[in-house]
Amino acid sequence: MAACSTILVAALSTACATSGQTRTEQADQNAPMTLSFWSTGGDDETATFQKAADLYHQKHPNVTVKVQTLSWDDAYAKLLAAATSRTGPDILSGGMTWTIQFGARGAMVDLRKHGIDALKGQAQPAQWESAVSPDGSVYGVPLDMSTLALYYRTDLLDKAGIDAPPKTWEELVKDIGTLKAAGVKKPYSQDWGNLDWIGYFNYLYQAGGAFYTADCKPSLDTPQAEQALTYWVDLYREHGAPTATVEGSDALDTGTAMVVAGNWIAKGLDTNKPKLKGKWAMAPLPAGPAGPTTFIGGRAIGVTSYSKYAQTGADFVKFMYTDEAIAAVADEARKRNISYIPPRPDKIVGGSTFTPEQAQVFAQAIGTGKAAPGCPGWDESASDVAKQLQSAILGKTDAKTALAEAAKVMQRNAG
Amino acid sequence: MAGPVPIGGRLRRVPVDRLRRYGTSYAMLLPFLALFAAFLLWPLANSLYLSFTSFDGVNPAVFTGLDNFAELAGDARFRHALGNTALYVVASVVLGTLLSLGLALAFNGPSWPHRIMRTLFFLPSVTSSIALMLMWKWVLFPSEAGLANTIVHWLGGSTVPWLATPSLTIPILVLMSVWGGMGYGMVLYVAGLGSIPEEYYEAARIDGASTWQRFRHITLPLLRPVTTYVVVTGLIGAFQVFEAVYIVFRGTNNIGGVLDSALMIVPYLYDQGFTHFKLGYASAIAWVLFLIIFVLSLVNLRVGRAMKEL
Amino acid sequence: MAVAPMDRLAPARRRARHEQPRAGGRARRNRHLLRLPFYLLSLTMVVPFYWLVITVLKPPTELSRIPPSFVPESPSFVNFHDPEWSAERVNPGHLQGVFQRFQVEFGFWRFLFNSVLVTTAITVGALLICSLAAYVIAKHRIRGRRVIFLMIIASMMVPWQTTLIPNYVIMRNLGWLDTYTAYIVPGLAKAFVLFFLVQFLQSVPNELIQAARVDGAGEWRIWWQIVLPLLRPALAAMSIFIVLAEWNNFLWPLVIVQSDEMANLPVALARLNSYFGAPDHQGAIMAGGFIASVPTIVFFLIFQKYFTRGIALSGLKG
Known about the structure:
Order of helices and strands of chain A: HEHEHEHHHEEHHEHHHEHEEEHHHHEHH
Shape of chain A: globular
Oligomer: heterotrimer
CATH architecture of the largest domain in chain A: 3-Layer(aba) Sandwich
Helix content of chain A: 40-55%
Largest interface: B-C, 121 and 121 residues
Structural class of chain C: mainly alpha
Structural class of chain A: alpha/beta
Distance between the termini of chain A: 29 Å
Low-confidence stretches of chain A: 1-6
Shape of chain C: globular
Number of helices of chain A: 18
CATH superfamily of the largest domain in chain A: Periplasmic binding protein-like II
CATH class of the largest domain in chain C: Mainly Alpha
Number of strands of chain A: 11
CATH topology of the largest domain in chain A: D-Maltodextrin-Binding Protein, domain 2
Order of helices and strands of chain C: HHHHHHHHHHHHHHHHH
Number of strands of chain C: 0
CATH architecture of the largest domain in chain C: Orthogonal Bundle
Radius of gyration of chain C: 25 Å
CATH superfamily of the largest domain in chain C: MetI-like
Number of helices of chain C: 17
Mean pLDDT of chain A: 90
Radius of gyration of chain A: 23 Å
Largest sheet of chain A: 6 strands, mixed
């Protein structure tokens, strides 16, 4: 745009294109350089990734990677703003499908150019797919994994005469009834994904449904989807699951018998809720008619297109998959007593921060797990889909109508 | 009026040294005017322009005419946000004004109890607003660890999911706003009450007017300017509500909370502008907000009064 | 309408003096009876603040107790400073030690500093710039004066959020994102302040200014030595408004701040909010809120008189 060429006009004209449309000039890869890495999560997680960055610095003394925290609350807005303004980090991490969004705006490097496909075989296939753009570009790859489990209070289950956690949908409902009859006031609650699409995700895939077909056509208007939603809604309306989210470890601590929650709860439960020590255990989610499919979350990591060090950035991303980087991150995470599941399924048991028994449960969930749909229009639709699910849960509409409405939104956003 | 320079008409005949002083005048105005133009007038014009484009922050803005406004008219979420805002604004302003007046009538004396009460009710106005929002969120915690549910349990009720119950959302937002704002209105009313000459009341008492009659025929009419001010500033402030929604009700991937029950105009503007980067569309929302507040402000008599003086 | 001198705005005292002799017997009882609901209403003020303060004082283990304690059983300051905390080994299940939590240089002090710096800079800057312009508009008969003033009054009807997006883009294009400049500069030209100061100055007689001119003082000196002192009550009133508004400013910083270091207190608090969820986290969150509130509350308690007068001044005469 000619009108934007002079500096003053460019500064004040709010409608001009951002300057970084052209390819950013690449710096000399051997000169000393400092890369910034914005990591979505907590300060503790930042510190664990910093350990990997320090290790990388040992191997490549000219490269310093500085990791900085973005809190989940405002990370998406911050990263999107950075992506559109071409200012910000060289490397970023965030929700699994975020890099697709930023990539679509031209802000990410297609890592295939830097030989990222070499990692593909090491990653969990469903999680990898979820970070791949519809056109096949790879703007981000999994950085870590997260999943869900059923946490339960062994003492309360014993009291109700239940000797094993529920393995199927039917058993779950039956056990809730048994617990209630035994005087347990809060038999069941959901932490991660409560009233949200992530919560529904598990039931949907366990019933054999999916948000999209393999070729990205919205597929919520199926009998499986309806069966899943009906079951989920009943958990709230018939079986008393609370609509307000109570954090998982707190729910267990305050007498909830069974809680569906994220893997990170397992870490620190014993130290933060000492009263619970020896009174809790965990199991994979109860299986539906089509199996026990569980949601796999986690973060994607990518390199920005306006970085002067794209080559090095991509190399650092690949480095995060090496045994030594995983070990460095896991060591620090263990020290800090926080959760970390590496992005390589073969490393879940040995390379995560969990006890082998706990890791087994997660490995099982991840083995058959599915990740967020990377289909076009999903991110725009997610909140509307969640809203439709909520109106079914809160009794404003029936499951069928809610799903039809949700499918309509997904159809529209799919373009 | 004794300004340094004669009034406009005789301008051409002013001596050179007066012209120099004229230059000083403009130099003194310059910092304000420059900033005012750069960060208010120019952005305002730009925002209007952007509202007719599909600007996404990356690619050059493409003029799309009235498309954004047409889309807004058909946008169910935006209509929902407007409806929520209207309900919230009316309820919080009416309740807030009545309570402000009541408090002012109750506690306008110089005695210590009155002063303490005034200080107490004014306290939220000087407390960090985000801190207050976080406090409310904790008070309304969805288990018996929270204050509100503890009280509910004392009264024999069962745990209420305050922030996940759509029908409670607007009442809670109104409560937070009235709670936080009535002390401010009270201070204005106390000042208003103090400016009513005592003679009026004396005269009315001699005529045998009852307390209610005196309130109805002296206090209320003479407080009208204060009431106008309290109502108009209250309306304008309420239309711009953001923090309460962003801090207390926002869900993981939806700014409006459960079923969008807390979605309001400014949060929706932020959502479209900064989490979707639909800057053109968000600018259209901004202009709808502007028009609403502009109309409300015209009601405000201060403008007319100020212009008369100049 | 002229702006009343400050001493006329001590209404409560004056009125009550008249009230004393006539409020006798039943009338007084009735009046007290009518007040009763408002005394009860004050409980809704006391209770939440009390809840906030006891939350700050409770250690995490006590916070997750059900039912909650209403007198902290083991009051401590771990929510501010946790002696067991170390940067190497954090216990993430609890959120405590708000001064240590943030891994930016100087931790929470940095946000406090940012807030103080920005609030001070805007208050001082805005009062200087606006009083300069107000002096010209009120006391100089220059061309375009009416048009300028009309424009400024009209702009008071613009909700600032209307300019949020263009201003954000301008900050971005100027490379000002994540700087103090972006915090301060767009906030300096405040139409309301200018309007108020002009109103106030119009009621101030011209003799002093004239006399100074006769003595040969320049306009800048007149502004600095005569106008500013004359404006003192108005400046005091306005500084209260500006301080409160800037201290609580949230949406603009939320948009322009990118790095942890540049957050002001409201933005930092909103970040703490992302830890919300478990009761044992509330202590540190409330501790953050407490720190953010103490400066303005203390400011208020010290200058209480000016607060109520300032608000009254703006409301009655604005």
